[in-house]
Specification:
CATH class: Alpha Beta
CATH superfamily: MoaB/Mog-like domain
Number of strands: 6
Strand order of the largest sheet: 2-1-3-6-5-4
Helix content: 40-55%
CATH topology: Molybdenum Cofactor Biosythetic Enzyme, Chain A
Structural class: alpha/beta
CATH architecture: 3-Layer(aba) Sandwich
Radius of gyration: 15 Å
Length: 160
């Protein structure tokens, strides 16, 4: 079983001014691969708060999925916070999400989402809109179980 924390980054959502539709959607989609969401939180777009929560969650779960704050707006700081706390990047995950997104909109190239590892936890940034969350997560969801197995120390070969 893959344990998951979902972290929604939204100034309005953290104040109760907007319903979070992306966080629950992430939980629903991850249920398909047998993942269990253990933690869920909504924070404002504050880099230090995001870093603190990522560090906390990374010690508790196998996978953290963030949603929101991946664009170019001044308060979009999720990738910046993530890069400051991960030990290594997994660029292929973000590349795959942008590749799939570009099939639908040229705005996908504006995503600054990153993916990486802290300890034995995989952290993946997703965009904020439910539509983009679905498209991005569906592009990578099949590789998540294998990635988590490897992080947990699975010694088997990756070749098929």
């Amino acid at each position: 079983m893959i344990t998951v924390a979902v972290l929604t980054l939204s100034d309005k959502g953290s104040k109760g001014e907007r319903d979070d539709k992306s966080g629950p959607l992430i939980s629903e989609l991850l249920h398909r691969i047998g993942a269990e969401v253990k933690s869920y939180d909504i924070l404002p777009d504050e880099k230090d708060l995001i870093k603190e929560k990522l560090i906390q969650f990374s010690a508790q779960v196998d996978l953290i999925i963030t949603t929101g704050g991946t664009g170019l707006a001044p308060r979009d700081v999720t990738p910046d916070a993530t890069l400051e706390i991960i030990e290594k990047q997994v660029p292929g995950i973000a590349e795959a999400m942008r590749f799939e997104g570009l099939k639908k909109t040229n705005r996908a190239m504006l995503s600054r989402a990153v993916a990486g590892v802290r300890g034995k936890c995989l952290i993946i940034n997703l965009p904020g809109s439910p539509k983009a969350v679905r498209e991005s997560l569906e592009a990578i969801i099949e590789v998540i179980p294998h990635a988590v197995e490897k992080l947990k120390g699975d010694p088997s070969e990756c070749a098929r």
